User: Fold these one by one.
Assistant:
Number 1:
Amino acid sequence: MSMIDLPESLLEAVSDTELIDYDQSLNLTSLDSSPYPIVIGKETPVEAIIELLSNTRFEHFVQEDHGHFFYNLILAAIMQKHSKTISTKPLRSVLTTGYSSMRRMVLPFNCSLDKKSILKHLEVYLERHKLSAISEGVLTIASEFILNALFHAPVDSANQRLFSKLARHEYVELPDEQNANIFIGHNQTTFVIGCQDPFGSVDKEIVFKLLNRAYGQTKAEINTGQSFGLGLKSAIDNSSGLYLLVEKSKKTTIYCTFPTEAGMRKVISMSKNIHIKFY
Amino acid sequence: MTDDNTICHLTLESNLDETTQLSCQPAEQHETLVVDFEKVKLINSTGIGIWINFITALIEQSNINKVIFRNARRMVINQINSVKDFLPAIGTVESFYLPLYCERCSKQFNQRLKTSELDVETVKNLDNLALEIDCDQFPDCRSEIEIDTLPGKYLAFLKPT
């Protein structure tokens, strides 16, 4: 990493990052002790990445053939060591290379009635910025993020889920006048859609259990409580990368990226970068 | 829902999501259910569950022994290919939309195809089909148009599982 011409502060931030080659490290679990590891792959299927991240303490998987490889490595390294920086200003962190040309929008919501207008705002944004080619993927992901933030994320002071057993057409309102946010932004190369909720209640074990189940079958099966897994799968399949940062009991930030100058064919065929970090 | 001898027609009026309310009561003589997905452009995971519960119960509680999907868009085809029972075992796809992308206009549009009109060669060389289609913005964009999905994966529903 230190051979790249980077500012001193950035070098310091990523200096002790260890890069591990997925294809050449036959026994990845033995490399599991590195303090700041990032696994690098090439055309690695999502199923294999999920299996790796579930069975080790690796949290970042960056693909060489994804595009913007070094930038994505640096982003992963910063995410590894400075997760709070990323979750405090996710758009600025992710779209930093084209910050001057960046367009963005943050849409707060606190009840289920807000969903329709948020999706409408997103549709208008995508149309206005000539990004409608990716709108199917973006709107599907936004729909999953909003439902998750409203129904699955909210917990009480005893960490009990408030609304997870309710039918998703029921009216719900986030407790204590709290808001969640849908955020979107893009620069010349990347579009980001994300969601942040003030609960940090996502359970690591459950995330991987659902993802393993969703990706472990030729065809996914719908059972009670599995829609969250299917929603995450949908977010991964319909984007070029998934970033899930969970600050326990404080905040969950989840976002997906898309290339801006492409249709869905490119998006779905791209090797996926996946980051799932709990801290 | 409309009646037509042994055929029962069901038209979905909007996207499949948590707000979807489905109802259909086939008569005793109805053996075939034709489902029109023309207006279904987006589907979320809750909508998938609602659809599967609905269609499974409907088949169990009626004399329907054949289900035909009509005008299935990308989101519907994706679910057929990846979610068990979205297309019931007694189901087939009569017509669907092939998503296309014009690089020059950065626009996505669709071409409707009938499954019965697809021969083996067309399916094998689906990318060639894009060369015969005009962009809906400018006719001279033809060479800039590509199929906006992975043809092999997209047409997986044509193969018997």
Number 2:
Amino acid sequence: MAKQLSVFIENRKGRLGEVLSVLKKNEVNILSLSLADTTEYGLLRLIVNNPEKGKEKLSAEGFSTMLTKVLVIKIEHKVGSLQMLLDTLSKNDINIEYMYGLSTEGTNAFVVLKASNPELAEKILGESGINTLTTEDILKL
Amino acid sequence: MIWNETKECMSRDELTNLQSARLVKLVDYVYHNVEFYRRKMQNIGMLPSDIKSIEDITKLPFTTKDDLRDNYPFGLFAVPNSQIVRIHASSGTTGKATVVGYTRRDLDVWNECVARCMTMAGITKDDVVQVAYGYGLFTGGLGAHGGAEKIGATVVPMSTGNSKKLTTMMVDFGATAIACTPSYLLYISEVLEQEGLIDKIKLKSAVCGAEPWTEKMREELESRLHITAHDIYGLSEIMGPGVACDCAFHKGLHVCEDHFYPEILDTKTLTPVKEGELGELAFTTLTKEGIPLIRYRTKDLTSIDYSKCECGRTSARISRFKGRVDDMLIIRGVNIFPSQVEAALVEVNEVAPHYMMIVDRVNNLDTLEIQVEMNPDYFVDEIKGLEKLTQKVGHVINQALGINAKIKIVEPMTLKRSEGKAVHVIDNRKIY
């Protein structure tokens, strides 16, 4: 399981830039990100090399942040592989709260997903021979 | 047309004599029937006999909204409930409403005053009057209703909330007058335009109140609807709508002075200011039986003109309101204090009690946005969680204020902090 760093951002000019600048100053590297937007605010979800440090530094600057357990899963870069993964979860009544991709080079793709029950999802995927990655694993990619 | 020429056009000397006689009677009445006033007078070593004429009024203590709240619900009533025939109430800052009670005679006086105001607006028994104030605890609906009935007009008790029905009936019934808030009337004019009904209405007059508005707004209403629009003023503590209204000359609002004695007070010293100078308006209810009030501070800022009006009335005229002494807002006709928002937000752990109220007027309807800071300890990183939080805050605000507000969750520590008096309101409406 990996830890995702989530940040609440108001829809206001330059606010995303300020988050990135705090991360840069503290040498927290972003491996993947997703930005969910509504009319009033955005939710920035980040996979970083050091989520704890990222949270600490952003919170100190007054941002609302939290760490969330997410599953990072390697899938083959081929038609239908994502659907197979989702089928496995769906059969076991696990919902996906949200999901985004993790970009890497090569033949494999990675998805980051927040499951309704992360522990159970990890176990079920493991039993189906699908491994999930930790932050450390991601750093080695 | 003047509804009650005897009272509305009596000479200033005669009026002063009438006010003096009524004040002497009132002070004796409250001393013997309202413990609150008896104590207040005893505390300053005063007896009813010390009040000999209206000029002695400055010797009397003031009454405030807090006094009504502290004596909730019926503590300031001068008669037993067997003589009270009607209760009205307005929202309070701390959940407790301000409650007022009327005897049958109070209702008669109220109807008389509203009848005078509606006559100032040119309304007669031949008119069809739509009353589009809310009916209920709020005094607007039933107050306007009673006055219009007293005149003998055909009253259509629309209440608020269904603009399409209102405009349809305005055309079908041939309504010639309407009583509602000025912002609601502006909205109605737009609905009429959209529905292509503007040339089909017979409206000629409007009596608008329950919220402050400007001369510019009056001009706009008059030109859009081809009517004359009049400003009716009142507050439930004193009576309800009908305390004052402007006549066809629109040079201030004629106060029903034989029933409500107005004073304009210096906001710092609370002593009377000179004629024409700006100050806080206070009223003494000269004839009220249910809940008579002495020198009730309205917190509204205005000035007074005692000269005879071109219309023939001699009653004093107060100018359009220039603002408030306190931080009360009137949004969609509802009185709102920022402290109500604060008290409501304290109940929601997920947000910090820092807030900013942004009041505006969009398409002629008041809007209220409340920005509130998220409490970082309760942050959730899912949109549905944040939406749930927004709904929760919206619900407690609605419970507290009685109106819906748009809730905007903002980042912690981002709302402006002030070192002096906190600024919690940005009002972009330009209503004063």
